[in-house]
Write a structure and sequence with these properties.
Length: 488
Amino acid sequence: MTDPCNIDRRDDLTHRIDAMRRGETTATDRLEASLTAIDRRNDELNAYHETLEDTARAVASEIDGRIARGEEARPLAGAILAVKDNICTTEGRTTCSSRMLENYRSPFDATVIRRLRDAGAILVGKTNLDEFAMGSGSEHCAWGPVRNPWATDRVPGGSSGGSAAAVAADLCDAALGSDTGGSIRQPAALCGVVGLKPTYGRISRYGLVAFGSSLDQIGPICRSVRDASLLYSVMAGVDPHDATTAELEVESWNESMRPAPDQLRIGIPREQRNAEHHPGVSEMFERAIDRLEAAGTSIVELDLPLTDQGISTYYVIAPAEASSNLGRYDGIRYGHRAKPMPGEGLEELYARTRTEGFGPEVRRRIMLGTYVLSAGYYDAYYKRALQVRRLIREEYDRAFEQCDLLLGPTTPGPAFRIGAERDPVSEYLNDVYTVNANIAGIPALSIPAGSTEVDGVGLPIGVHLQAPPFAESRLFGAGSTIESILAD
């Protein structure tokens, strides 16, 4: 089926950086091409909330000067990157696509931003998202919904929908997202690109506006697995600003380390061969398994019986942490503040400020989180969810004793129409196969696996690869092999 976004996996970030080093193009030329594409398509897609043209042009000029002088090229020299607007940057605003932070300017860069800048990346703009990263369609945004480049009446996935749409529409070379329950991988799948959620603690969260602190991770959205590995290698590592980062050496990976198909032992969870999937997803998944087996891959059928418990567990833990993290937005210290009314007390001012500043989905999750943490309900909900979290982690440990990696669909269906998921639970179920990786803290990767026709339109579908903690190099190796097999 024709790719309406014309995504050429070979024309990825790695290829473009190599072309700049050979003098075939310049960072300035690449930036201007991206800005032209943004000008042409962003009104339609709403992928970017803000572009950073002036600073981007200055950085591009500096990089071209370095290359012209023969200085050693930095690993990301000239890479045009978009940044999800819940990651702090000193340029532009950091709004989280919320009225609460509509005019907030961060006084510091997130650690990942500093590392990317030091590696030569050019930040072209801040992308839209579900408000405070709470959503699965990028519809819950103060600046309007983001649209899928494959079919603009459909969602790009969420919450990192702006970043995924920008990469799929070639409005940048790659982008950053954040993933609390699937918010990188799910939009990557629905937009036909690659998305990585690293192991919890592998990439610093310093400068990421917190949603669920024990679940959040920053990761890349790219055109290829090798691009994801390149960005990961720059961002990963211990950070003194984030005590949750692991003091473990970051393993290097390159394509020469890609394993042959017959070196892979892939586990297929029976629970993810589900009759309730969209038919296109089931067909794609079975076709992917058949192609892997034909290439010599060892396929291991196994059980992950707690698969369906992930959503309910996640929607206790994540809102509980969100209700605590978002308690700081009171309109007094920073952020939106309602206009004081005569005779109004502080409590009333707080209530109006938060009602005006937060959208309905954020308010829903704050109330849910406050409820499960309240006296009389803490043990019944939050404590029990933590117990199930431990069981899910142990279930993964047992699974990885039988195989090297796990493979399943990224989502149960392709992109849904904007406004179609009016029932919040129906929207939440789009993350049924992604949330457990966050709950267990393991790394996971979504890889394009083709497309299926829906109402005469081809919509992307992805496969979801999961690995043991801190086994990103294994994930990249297997992911690159599977990417190649599925692309043939």
